[in-house]
Amino acid sequence: MVKSLQGGRTPRVSDTKSYNNGIKTVPAYLLPPVIVTKANAAEAYANDPKLAPLTK
Predict the structure, then answer these.
(1) pLDDT tens, 11-34?
(2) In angstroms, what CA-CA distances link 29 with 10, 15, 16, 35?
(3) Between the CA atoms of 35, 41, 47 and 52, what dihedral angle is there, to the nearest 10 degrees?
(4) Inter-residue contact 12 to 1 (CB < 8 Å)
(5) What is the DSSP letter of 15?
(6) Mean pLDDT of 36-49
(7) Spatial separation of the C-alpha atoms in residues 23 and 54, rounded to whole Å
């Protein structure tokens, strides 16, 4: 989303109704929740360049 905004483009959103901050409804991109435990940390963070090294 940040790269889209920096490039002057409209970011993709998946929810345009749920998040009202009292002034306006704020579009959001909702991610599916993932419970991360010691047993699945390597798999959960495999594609994250900052977190993947922590699981080794």
Answers:
(1) 999 999 999 999 999 999 999 999
(2) 12, 6, 9, 19
(3) 140
(4) yes
(5) B
(6) 94
(7) 40
HSE-CB for 48 with a 13 A CA cutoff: 12
In 1-56, which ranges are continuous DSSP H helix? Answer: 2-6, 41-44
pTM: 0.53
The first and second tokens of residue 8, run together, are 């002057």
Q: What is the longest distance spanned by two Cα atoms in the chain?
A: 45
Written as six digits, the tokens of 6 are: 């920096």
Residue type at 54 in one-letter notation: L
